[in-house]
Amino acid sequence: MRATLFLRGASVLAIIHALLHTIGGVLGKPKNGAPEVAVIAAMKSSSFNVMGSMRTYWDFFYGYGWLLGIALLVEGILFWQLATIAKTNAAPIRPIIMLFCVNFLVTTVIAWKYFFIAPAVTELLIALFLAGAYFAAGNATRTA
Description:
This protein is mostly helical.
């Protein structure tokens, strides 16, 4: 399989992950009843000064949710662009592919430990597609 196909697969998964994270995680409403609503209210109830700005724990939680969604979307777009480059010369992008592969392996562990199975599996699948792209890009270089 060519590096281009692996990168396109990683791209599609990252974009889907970005969309579902944003819809379900950032824009989603509480679904677990009063205890969840109480935690959110507590996160919003107290502001504190952070480097000159008054913020709550909710601000951080909500803001980091948006940051992750945007980062996943940008990564998905980048993987698509790298796939286009890989069509003609995959060798120079191998270090970039490996860097993101390691990133997604680490985020798999974090998602497994601190979140739940869906993001962990998605992160792992993206990492596997990137590993496939890395090795396919090396094979393309050796056979050219």
